[in-house]
Design a protein that fits this description.
- This protein is α/β, with parallel strands linked by helices.
- The protein folds into three domains: 14-151 and 188-226, Rossmann fold, CATH 3.40.50.620; 256-356, Serine Threonine Protein Phosphatase 5, Tetratricopeptide repeat; 363-500, DNA Cyclobutane Dipyrimidine Photolyase, subunit A, domain 3 (Orthogonal Bundle).
- 44% of the residues lie in helices and 7% in strands.
- A six-stranded mixed β-sheet has the order 1-6-5-2-3-4, sandwiched between helices.
- Strand 5 (119-125), helix 4 (130-142) and strand 6 form a beta-alpha-beta unit.
- Helix 5 (168-184) packs across helix 13 and helix 17 (416-429) crosses helix 18.
- The longest helix has 23 residues, at 334-356.
- The chain starts with 13 loop residues before the first strand and ends in a 22-residue tail after the last helix.
- The relative contact order is 0.12.
Length: 522
């Protein structure tokens, strides 16, 4: 399956803000914020295309700030490991790569604006939430040069439909009817290839931008040391004013090289049984790539393309009608179909929602019906009575929930199926549904490598009824879907999981978790 030759100016992937007062510059600047990779990257591909067409040098700046709420050793180490991969790949590519790590709060506040003064065009990732969105918004306001926002996030462009979707079914129907559009949007594998032979960036201009903003350039030695992730790396990170209590995860190495190794193992060994095994924690059948997807170290478009290519798929394989069904439409085996539904439907549903709904990361974005039914049950007795601190420390009477919370703290992720249970129990235990939402965001954004992400906020929203329908009315939950640990323990294989993320001393044994809230008489 071939990739698109470039991004059309009228593409839903591209948004251009014209230069101010006829501004012109000496090079193209790509400010990399979320698509932190050199393969299957539409933003990098577009930046290279611009540089080639204008015969200008290309400068790529990848910055790592400390000024966001959840900056910590875990996030920094993972991102710095990615920077090492980036530098290795860009050496000799014809592109100038400048990694930068902020060392003082506000240190680089004016760096992007100052660097854009020398640029003919600024290309920046179009990401719909958290800090990357804020950076892109500032760039559009402050940069005198052209600003090109490029959406490299998912298989379906965030602007393609021009609206948000309220259910996975409605997005599938849209996908089925417009599949050719999204196939035409696929990026090339090696966007740097045409950059060979581009003119060199004037290093004096780079040095001047750092000097005039009183911003120190980051020594490569610092990046190497901190990327180690061990005692040496953590010692180096102590110089930064970030949360040092959230430790790096030794077996979760950031960067595209690690991501691609994991992806190939999944394709070779687990894709065929994905539909059967993915919900069982003990089988570890999912890709486990959500951290690398979050930081842009691997592309979901690449994943889709690789799966389709593996089976020699083309649109002629689809099975009409385009009716939004979860399986059977692609004309593929059950495993690949189940995987495509996750990486396209549910992932892109979250990104489109985040792009279209400004308060997507807050309780106010929960559908009215769900807010109403939860409010009706706000005074129902709640089991547990746990504080936020008890939940964060995994000190509940629920062995399975505690294991999920410990996995979050130790590994920076929660197994896919248990992530849903994890949230549903917090909704059951917290004093109010609004507080439950806030607690989920705080726990996930602090500890999860894949936190601060449209998928995270969509998943937390789903816990409270978003993208779902009404169910049998129960205490606490109202008509919002309910999940209970004792039923989950019977449904999935999790004994090894609970043992792995122990200790379980002082907790209830397997099968002794809290029971289903009673049905309400209506």
């Amino acid at each position: 399956m071939s990739a698109a030759a470039g991004i059309e100016e009228r593409s839903a992937r591209l948004s251009i803000r014209p230069a101010k007062d006829g501004h012109q510059g000496s090079h193209v600047l790509y400010w990399m914020t979320s698509a932190r990779r050199t393969s299957y990257n539409l933003a990098l591909q577009h930046a290279v295309d611009l540089a080639v067409k204008r015969n200008l040098p290309l400068l790529v700046v990848e910055a790592l700030a400390i000024g966001h709420r959840w900056a910590n050793d875990r996030i920094h180490t993972f991102m710095l490991q990615g920077m090492i991969d980036q530098r290795t790949t860009m050496l000799g590519s014809g592109v100038t790569y400048v990694p930068y790590v902020e060392t003082r709060h506000g240190e680089a506040r004016g760096l992007l604006a100052r660097m854009s003064v020398d640029a003919d065009a600024l290309v920046i990732d179009d990401y719909p939430t958290y800090m990357p969105r804020q950076v892109a918004q500032r760039a559009q306001t402050l940069a005198p040069c052209e600003v090109h926002l490029v959406d490299s996030n998912g298989f379906i462009a965030m602007r393609h439909a021009g609206r948000a979707f309220t259910t996975a079914y409605s997005l599938r129907r849209h996908l089925h009817k417009t599949i050719e559009d999204h196939l035409a949007d696929l990026p090339v594998e090696f966007p740097l290839a045409p950059a060979i032979g581009l003119p060199d960036v004037d290093e004096h201009l780079i040095d001047l931008a750092f000097k005039e903003t009183d911003t120190p350039r980051t020594p490569l030695e610092f990046i190497w040391r901190t990327a180690e992730g061990n005692r040496v790396g953590r010692e180096a990170l102590k110089a930064l004013d970030i949360d040092h209590d959230v430790a790096p995860v030794p077996h979760m190495k950031g960067g595209s090289m690690s991501a691609h190794k994991r992806w190939r193992k999944f394709l070779d060994a687990r894709l065929e049984r994905y539909h059967e095994d993915r919900n069982h924690p003990d089988l570890q059948a999912a890709t486990g790539l959500s951290p690398w997807l979050h930081f842009g170290h691997i592309s979901s478009q690449q994943m889709v393309k690789d799966v389709l290519d593996l089976y020699g798929w083309d649109p002629g394989h689809t099975t009409p009608p385009p009716d939004g069904r979860r399986s059977g439409w692609w004309g593929l085996p059950a495993g690949p179909e189940a995987f495509l539904d996750q990486v396209i439907t549910w992932r892109d549903l979250a990104f489109i929602h985040a792009h279209m709904v400004h308060d997507h990361d807050g309780y106010s974005s929960i559908p009215e019906w769900a807010q109403a039914t939860l409010a009706e049950h706000a005074n129902d007795p709640r089991p547990g009575g746990y504080t936020f601190e008890q939940l964060e420390a995994a000190e509940t009477g629920d062995a399975l929930w505690n294991a999920a919370q410990r996995q979050l703290m130790q590994d920076g992720i929660i197994q896919n199926y248990l992530r849903m249970l994890w949230g549903k129990k917090i909704l059951e235990w917290a004093p109010t549904p609004q507080l439950a939402f806030d607690w989920m965001v705080a726990l996930n954004d602090r500890w999860a490598l894949d936190g601060r992400d449209p998928n995270s906020y969509a998943g937390i929203g789903w816990v409270c009824g978003k993208f779902d329908r009404g169910w049998t009315e129960r205490a606490v939950f109202g008509k919002v879907r309910c999940m209970m640990s004792h039923r989950t323990e019977k449904k999935v294989k999790a004994r090894e999981y609970i043992s792995r993320y122990g200790p379980v001393g002082g907790q209830l044994p397997l099968g002794a978790s809290y029971r289903m809230p009673p049905r309400r008489d209506v």
